[in-house]
Design goal:
This protein has 381 residues and is of the alpha/beta class. It folds into three domains: 133 residues, no CATH class; 134 residues, NADH-ubiquinone oxidoreductase 51kDa subunit (Rossmann fold, 3-Layer(aba) Sandwich), CATH 3.40.50.11540; 70 residues, no CATH class. Helix content is 28%, strand content 20%. It is built from eleven helices and 19 strands. A six-stranded mixed sheet has the order 2-16-15-19-17-18, with no helix packed on it. A four-stranded antiparallel sheet has the order 3-9-8-5, with no helix packed on it. It is globular and about 60 Å long.
């Protein structure tokens, strides 16, 4: 069995840096419900699109400007550089209940971990993937927002116990939460594995988990009443505050990063991230890193036949069989994929990363899940 440990202990090099604002935003609106149109003039924070799920957060303009183009994938805003912003919403004064949940959702917060009653609230304080140091950065520098976010989460969930899962050996804390140190190794940063590590149970009832980045956003919304319009990204060893929708091309030019022909640019992380299809592609809220991989560093993924080596099964923390699930997904036999544990997959990416045949296992799994979701929505409609 191949045993490789992937460290998540990525201490920030310095304070969070601000990125020069772009002249154009390309905001991803795929699978969202569009709430604006070409020619519309937007202020910073104006609603752009709503999430189709009952819990997903809405999408807003990170900068003011005019909508120049709209297609299936993205909405292009030509930024004006004006200072006009939307009026803040006083969420801090709202009582616990559906009104507050709806207001947070409309301000861009994913409220799925904030509904109902929780006996245990777990804060995932580990960096999401190797090479990304955003979580540790926010634990070090985002004290005010994290405290406000935790107050809001506890107001909604009324947990009996609140636990901050932090890298073992790190002296970090959030007032109101007990700190538990766990292994800073990937894939132990996945929510399900973090919960198991701190509760000693798999998928315990009445337990909610929220990561540090989302808790920070929740706190900022509570303090300012303004929507979520930016993300934090680890780029070339430093953490930047980046407006959502900023084109990759702008990031490369602003930071003077060199890209050679054949290189791959990945948004997210090395395991779960996605390679971009264009330098004009804009970053999303959940993109916590950007990586440039040279053409000769990692063998190219290909639609090769499975070798039946079993390495993906040995690596899988969910204890499913990625080689079988991906085969069924490849041939659009989605019911069989579900039967073999498709919905138990954490999408950690270890199977694809360690596949000797270089098959796109994670991509097949995500494709199957997306097709099943689309079919379900179509049936309901």
């Amino acid at each position: 069995m191949l045993k490789i440990h992937y460290s998540l202990d990525q201490k920030p090099a310095d304070s969070i840096r601000d990125l020069e604002p772009p002249k154009v935003l390309n905001i991803s609106v795929r699978n969202l419900v569009l709430k604006t149109k070409k020619g519309s003039v937007l202020a910073k924070g104006d609603l752009v699109a709503e999430h189709p799920s009952p819990c997903g957060g809405a999408c807003h303009a990170a900068l003011g400007g005019k909508v120049k183009a709209v297609n299936y994938h993205s909405l292009t805003v030509e930024c004006s550089g004006g200072a006009e912003t939307v009026e803040p919403v006083d969420v801090a004064s709202m009582g616990k209940g559906s009104e507050l949940i709806r207001a947070l959702q409309e301000l861009g917060v994913d409220v799925s971990p904030l509904s109902g009653r929780a006996e245990v609230l777990v804060i995932n304080g580990l960096n999401p993937e190797p090479g990304v140091s955003v979580a540790q950065q926010l634990l070090r520098d985002g004290g005010e927002e994290l405290r406000a976010g935790l107050d809001m989460a506890r107001k909604l969930l009324s947990p009996d116990r609140t636990i901050l899962a932090a890298p073992k050996g790190e002296a970090v804390s959030i007032p109101g939460a007990e700190t538990v140190g766990i292994r800073a190794k990937y894939p132990y940063s996945l929510d399900a594995l973090v919960v198991r590590a701190v509760t000693r149970k798999e998928f315990p009832e009445h337990t909610r988990v929220i990561n540090v980045m989302d808790l920070f956003d929740l706190g900022k919304v509570a303090l300012t009443g303004l929507p979520v319009t930016e993300t934090f990204m680890t780029i070339d060893g430093h953490n930047y505050r980046v407006p959502v929708g900023t084109p990759v091309r702008h990031i490369l030019e602003a930071l003077e990063l060199n890209v050679e022909p054949g290189d791959t640019i990945v948004l997210g992380g090395p395991f779960r991230g996605e390679s971009i299809y264009s330098l004009d592609q804009g970053v999303k809220k959940e993109d916590y890193g950007m990586f440039i991989t040279s053409s000769d560093a990692i063998p190219e993924v290909q639609d090769a036949a499975c070798m039946n080596c079993g390495e993906c099964v040995l690596q899988c923390p969910a204890r499913v069989q990625p080689h079988l699930i991906s085969r069924y997904a490849e041939y659009e036999r989605f019911e069989e994929a579900e039967r073999y544990g498709l919905n138990s997959c954490f999408e950690c990416g270890l199977c694809a990363f360690n596949c000797f045949a270089r098959r796109p296992l994670l991509q097949y799994i995500r494709f199957a899940k997306a097709q099943i979701r689309a079919k379900g929505q179509g049936t309901k409609a």
